[in-house]
Amino acid sequence: MNAPASHPERGDSARGAGVRPRIIVGITGASGAIYGIALLKALRELDIESHLIISQAASLTIHHETDFSVQDVKALADKVYAIGDIAASCSSGSFATLGMIIAPCSMKTLAEIATGVTSNLISRSADVVLKERRRLVLLARESPLTEIHIGNMLTVTRAGAIVAPPVPAFYNRPASIHDIVVHTVGRTLDLFGLSPDWVKRWG
């Protein structure tokens, strides 16, 4: 992945005087922790300040699914918050960000966001992003879906979130899991107007 030469308008508008644009990253316990890890790496290359929250279940998933330790993942972020730290900066709407990405997003976390329940800092931060009309992207990971899951996706979409399941594209001829993951991360960042130049695009 190569960083683009300059920040797009969306990042510049949220920068402020001498302040790097920020994105909150939540990693939950759904399968697919590698998406959150790749996202943190991409944000670092793009010079976007990352504010990371890892759920307790995500810590287990990171251990089982990747070769990274939780400390390795935390080291990729600019700022890390404890899942129970409801007084953290990102729990307030006055903390200016471009928005938040939850990668992956478990059905439990989706349900909390859909119902306005904020039992931890991930769901609280997502709630804040919605109320401030900022961009919230959920890489929802589950299959097959129940009517409850689909209903919750509809609810958060109507509230302004974008549900973006990490569905792989094949027109770019991926040769590895890494290719699939990086393409999904790049397309996720497109939703923030960042348009990373490593994404292989149709046409």
Backbone structural class: alpha/beta
Distance between the termini: 20 Å
| Helix and strand element order | HEHEHHEEHHEHEH
- What is the spatial order of strands in the main beta sheet? 3-2-1-4-5-6
Radius of gyration: 16 Å
Strand content: 5-15%
Helix content: 25-40%
Number of strands: 6
Shape: globular
Q: What is the averaged pLDDT score?
A: 92
List the uncertain runs. 2-13
Number of helical segments with 4 or more residues: 8
Largest sheet: 6 strands, parallel
Write up this protein.
The chain is α/β, with parallel strands linked by helices. Helices cover 39% and strands 15% of the residues. The protein has 8 helices and 6 strands, in the order H-E-H-E-H-H-E-E-H-H-E-H-E-H. The chain has helices at residues 9-13, 33-45, 56-65, 70-75, 107-115, 121-131, 147-158, 177-190, and strands at 22-27, 49-54, 79-81, 99-105, 135-140, 162-163. Strands 3-2-1-4-5-6 form a 6-stranded parallel β-sheet, with helices on both faces. Helix 2 (33-45) packs across helix 8 (177-190), helix 5 crosses helix 6 (121-131) and helix 5 crosses helix 7. The radius of gyration is 16 Å and the shape is globular.
Layout of SSEs?
Elements: H1 9-13, E1 22-27, H2 33-45, E2 49-54, H3 56-65, H4 70-75, E3 79-81, E4 99-105, H5 107-115, H6 121-131, E5 135-140, H7 147-158, E6 162-163, H8 177-190
Task: Tag the structure with descriptive keywords.
6-stranded parallel sheet, single chain, alpha/beta, 203 residues, 8 helices, disordered N terminus, 6 strands
